[in-house]
């Protein structure tokens, strides 16, 4: 089962890498990207990651969602950071510092989300949960993550069904003003929240009645081989090179 239902068209060498190596490497790269001060490296990482995702056959719509978030962040920061004015749109003024900061953060968001998509698309859910357990993440947290991953698609389908039913009753008709539409959307979100709580209680009761106990889950791991150590060493080397290159390029914002 793929995490978040992100499927690839073919199995590649990325799928065969140990899940623990992929999770540790992903965490290292995320911290490294967040610490960068120049947009050149995050831009290169984002482009490289999107090429890998396309080669893996990940659906285009999965790549578009992170772009929406990055674009919203770009718009907000561009007009809210004080500095030297560059241009004006109505009552909003874009500043030079705002453009630099918003561009940097947008590229970081794209680089990080594309990296997470690669990890998610190439790591089965059982390998992902086993890697978290091996990293000594509390079992309760691991189980919560796994259950959220397994049922997020169910929740999304139920939400779409509810929205379709509300549309059939003209809850989002063009004749309604935007306040009424927002109110109806909030009502739908509240209904989904109550349904999810009820479903969670029923699932938990069903699992405990069958003897479920997360503390008794036993996962056997094989020791790290030379390929795993080589993979981690290569990831550390890439992170160090990114930091050194960023230091050479200097700070782009201020």
Which key terms come to mind for this protein?
two-stranded antiparallel sheet, 2 strands, 8 helices, 4% strand
Give your account of this protein's structure.
This protein is mainly α and 254 residues long. It has 2 domains: 1-124 and 228-254, no CATH class; 138-221. Helices cover 70% and strands 4% of the residues. It has a two-stranded antiparallel ribbon. A hairpin with a 2-residue loop joins β1 and β2. α1 (19-35) crosses α5, α2 packs parallel to α4 and α6 packs across α7 (178-209). The longest helix is centred in the C-terminal third of the chain and has 32 residues, at 178-209.
Number of strands: 2
Number of continuous helical runs: 8
Net shape:
flat
Q: Ranges with pLDDT <50 over ≥5 residues?
A: none
Q: How is the secondary structure organized here?
A:
Blueprint: H1 19-35, H2 40-56, H3 60-80, E1 85-89, E2 92-95, H4 96-122, H5 125-134, H6 139-168, H7 178-209, H8 226-249
Helix pairs in contact: 1-4, 1-5, 1-8, 2-4, 3-4, 5-6, 6-7
Nutshell version of this structure?
The chain is mainly α. 70% of the residues lie in helices and 4% in strands. The protein has a two-stranded antiparallel sheet with strand order 1-2.
